[in-house]
Amino acid sequence: MISTYNCAQEVIDEDDELLKNVKHRYGEEVYNAITTAVMELNEYNPSGRYPVQELWDFEERRRATIGEAIESLHKEKTYMESDTESLHMVKTLLESDIESLNNEKNKLNAEKFELVCDIESLDSEKIKLNAERFQLVCDIESLNWEKSVLGSNIESDKMEKSNLGRELQLFSQEKEKLQSDFESLKKEKSMVESDFCSLNEKKTILESEIESLNNVKTELLSDIKLLKRDKSEMETGFEFLKDAKNKLCSVIESLNKEKTTVASGVELLNKEKFILASEKIQLGTDVELLNQEKDRLRNGIETMNSKRTILENYIELLDDEKNKVGSVIELMDRKKTIMARDVELLNKEKLVLASEKIHDETAKQALELEIERLKGNLNVLKHMGGDEDEAFNKKMDEMSKNLEEKEGELDSLEDLNQALVVMQRKTNDELQEARIELIQGLREMSGRALIGVKRIGELDNKPFYDACKRKYGSDGVQATLMCTTWEEYLRDPNWHPYKIIKVGTRYQ
């Protein structure tokens, strides 16, 4: 409701066709947004019908004074100083976190280097073990070859031994045969000797035969000696072969033991190889995990660095804004001091001017009454007196002169009143300039303060978008068209959605 002429108030005409139509089609929120803009325009800018910028107390939803705005600037400065201190603390904490992360990164790099060194040493030990394994395999193959050679030698020795045994058996058989022959010869000799006398004619033959047999015997004895020597040599060779066999058996046994040892060593090497392979796989997994952790830490450090850069930039912006706000506030303080002094002087002058204006108006009214009274008296005297009455004429001249003086005083009071009106307008213009400058300063600041700049009479777009979303779906074009249309309605001076009502004996 808008007060007019101290006895009536304008209210929104709910029967206006445009308002009724929009309330019916789009709901209460759109209607309230339009009526709020209409009432603000009618209250704060009724002649222009366009949004204006004003100092505004958003908590109490009213206009703010210049002093309240400057006090809000001081509070904003305090908030920004505390925010800057907290941001510096956050920056310090982030720097300590980054330093700890860098230390952890260096520690992980050292552990990674140790793991790489361990892997390299394990690889060198693995190469060494593979070389030893290859050497053992070569030694086993050479031992197997020597074993096969010894086996073939033993087989050949066994064959020679069996051949020698067969030859000895043959020699034994021949010896037995010779012995049997010798026995038979002995028998025959005995028979010959017994029959010597009777067989003298055969003596020569027998002697020759005996001589030949003796030769044969000698040869047989020499052969037997040779055979005995060969037998002893064979026995010696057999003993040597037996010793060699025993040695070979012991060697084979030791080789079997070595083979078992080597096999167990190879098995242990295989186990160690498997363990090393599993450890290598585990180390590979650990290295991969460490690389992932390293990448995560790198990404985290990059993120922290980016955040740190953003915070530093934000802190720089805040410092710049703080310096800017500080300079603005200092300027505002100086302007506030000057403006407060000027406002105080202007208010004093305004009070003086108002009192002088009231006094002048009172004096003017008194003078006007006095002039009217004098004019009335003068007219009465003109009608009552004659031209020959000298005293009467003198009194008329005095009254005319007094009337002229009063009219001169009235003219001077009119001039003084006009000068006071000019001074009052100048004071109001200076106050308006101070308000405009303060509005310009508050527009450049962040919107955390309770007192700021508001465009009075500006249409709120959100209810229109919400209503169009409910009615048409997600249609921003329709909402924009509606807002544009209603802004044109608000600027139209021919649209006057108000009415004046009477309550009791007064109009409202």
Automatic annotation (TrEMBL):
- Domain Factor of DNA methylation 1-5/IDN2, by residue range, is 6-76, 454-505
Query: Which ranges form a coiled coil?
Result: 91-118, 161-230, 364-433
Keyword check for Coiled coil: yes
Superkingdom of origin organism: Eukaryota
- Pfam families assigned to the protein according to its UniProt record, in alphabetical order: XH
Q: Which Gene3D superfamilies match?
A: arf6 gtpase in complex with a specific effector, jip4
- The answer, when asked if Coiled coil is one of the entry's keywords, is yes
* Protein name as annotated: Factor of DNA methylation 1-5/IDN2 domain-containing protein
BP GO annotations:
gene silencing by siRNA-directed DNA methylation
Organism phylogeny: Eukaryota, Viridiplantae, Streptophyta, Embryophyta, Tracheophyta
Which keywords does this chain's UniProt record carry? Coiled coil
